[in-house]
Design brief:
By secondary structure, the chain is α/β, with parallel strands linked by helices. The chain is built from 13 helices and 19 strands. The protein has a 9-stranded mixed β-sheet. It is globular, with a radius of gyration of 24 Å.
Length: 471
């Protein structure tokens, strides 16, 4: 079982500013309240709130030790219990300029503190971090085995990409990635380091039709090796005009789209691993699988899956590339409007709800019980399963390729991220669109559901205040 920590770039920078003040060489202390995201490979501790212990919250502080006031500790414990999360204890070794590590005093202290946290706060997992000037180490407590184990990685997510910090205790056992010869031309573009970052990424694709199939094939060719594919549909005759990789034999065999793509992908690169889920994204199996992904792509054509993917992105702190196309044709079959968009949700920087990018009324109607759903379909409020919108492969290809380009830039840092790109089909132009964050958005603000993980519980209202002087 592997455990990692994820936080936003904003929190990481604010934490460093608090923990390494320019006018002090004393050890600093704080807590991070986390959400917990459990998946098949382990846990992800999602950093929600960093609480720095200033002088009023400490009973002792020097260059070699720091002790928090028990009242401050209890205050934080109460908050963790309310939001049903985990706890990371953070302190610094300010004189460590090389590879920082936990001291013997830290070891003895945590032999007592970790079991106490489990007793008072449930199993967690709970963790600890120690920061030096140029490095970090981290570990977590396995309540089942009563063992302290190293954290695999610390991911810092922001608009400039995902920076992975390797804890010093993991450096010696780090296994380097080999690069397949088929990617040599890409290495010339963004280097071996960029290619290795692509190969380490686990990508989920929801909706494996005209958009999703091209997304998958392009990502395979780019070098992504680990996939989760989710779509409950099978290959039909009317799909062959735009479903990349599909053949007549797939129509005859009624092959699930995810299985067709998995087989096709292995013919391109036999090093890939694909978890094919031929089910709705709303099933428990599908949602559970997505939690283990580093990135999610959406190629869906209805609103309710977008609501779900937007929520998963925010609550589990996974960047989400939302893709969509549309064609409006007149009665005489002349195209009046056509285009598509790629909108990238970065945890901490706003979501689709912030920009009114989801029709929430339509999404609710799509999820009505069958009898009520048929009622609203008959009255034209939403489209039925037999109503198909115009769709052509070239337009899907443009949007899918733009999305993979943004992904490539985000992962390798070879180009700045354009968070919202609109493509005008008739003018053959792309237009950047503003993607502002709504500070009052309940779905994605730091003080609501961002990083809430499996609990989906907002932070306690009293924790929103930064004033801890009288705790």
């Amino acid at each position: 079982m592997k455990t990692q920590i994820t936080m936003t770039t904003k929190m990481y920078k604010e934490m460093l500013e608090k923990l390494f003040p320019p006018d002090s060489n004393s050890e600093q202390f704080g807590f991070i309240i986390t959400g917990i995201s459990k998946h098949e490979n382990g846990h992800n501790l999602l950093c929600r709130k960093f609480i720095h212990a200033d002088e009023s919250c400490l009973t002792n502080q020097s260059g070699v030790s720091v002790i928090p006031d028990p009242r401050f500790v209890q205050y934080v414990y109460n908050a963790v219990k309310e939001c049903k999360g985990g706890l990371i204890t953070v302190h610094t070794h300010p004189f460590s300029n090389g590879s920082v590590c936990f001291s013997g005093i830290d070891d003895r202290s945590e032999e007592d503190s970790f079991p106490k946290e489990v007793e008072l706060l449930e199993k967690g997992p709970h963790a600890s971090m120690v920061l030096g000037r140029n490095s970090v180490d981290a570990r977590w407590y396995n309540a089942k085995t009563r063992q302290i184990k190293p954290i695999k990685a610390i991911k810092v997510v922001g608009e400039s990409g995902t920076k992975v910090l390797t804890p010093t205790s993991q450096s010696e056992i780090y296994q380097d990635e080999t690069i397949n010869e088929i990617h040599n031309r890409q290495v010339l573009a963004f280097g071996k380091a960029g290619q290795k970052l692509i190969q380490k990424a686990k990508v989920g694709i929801v909706g494996c039709g005209g958009l999703g199939s091209i997304l998958f094939i392009q990502l395979v060719r780019l070098g992504v090796r680990d996939f989760v594919l989710i779509d409950d549909d099978v290959v039909e005759n009317t799909n062959l005009n735009r479903l990349a990789g599909s053949r007549f034999i797939d129509v005859k065999n009624k092959t699930p789209k995810v299985e067709m793509l998995a087989k096709y992908g292995l013919e391109i690169n036999d090093e890939i691993t694909v978890e094919s889920i031929a089910e709705s994204v709303f099933t428990s199996k599908a949602k559970y699988a997505l939690k283990s992904c580093d990135y999610i792509f959406g190629g869906v054509d209805t609103q309710s899956p977008r609501v779900l993917l937007n929520s998963i992105s925010i609550q589990h702190m996974i960047p989400y590339f939302d893709c969509g196309t549309g064609i409006q044709a007149a009665v005489d079959h002349n195209i009046e409007h056509a285009g598509g968009q790629i909108r990238t949700v970065i945890p901490g920087l706003g979501c689709l709800k912030c920009i009114k990018g989801i029709n929430l009324d339509t999404a609710k109607m799509e999820l009505l019980p069958e009898e009520q759903r048929q009622f609203v379909i008959e009255r034209g409020y939403i489209a039925g399963e037999d109503e198909h919108a115009p769709s052509v492969a070239p337009l899907n290809g443009v949007i899918a390729n733009l999305a993979v380009t943004e992904f490539m830039g985000f992962v390798t840092d070879c180009k700045p991220l354009s968070r919202y790109v609109f493509y005008d089909f008739l003018r053959s132009t792309t237009v950047p669109v503003e993607f502002p964050k709504n500070p009052d958005c309940f779905s994605c603000s730091e003080d609501s559901l961002l990083g809430s993980g499996d609990s989906n519980v907002a932070l306690p209202e009293y924790l929103i205040s930064e004033c801890l002087t009288n705790v």
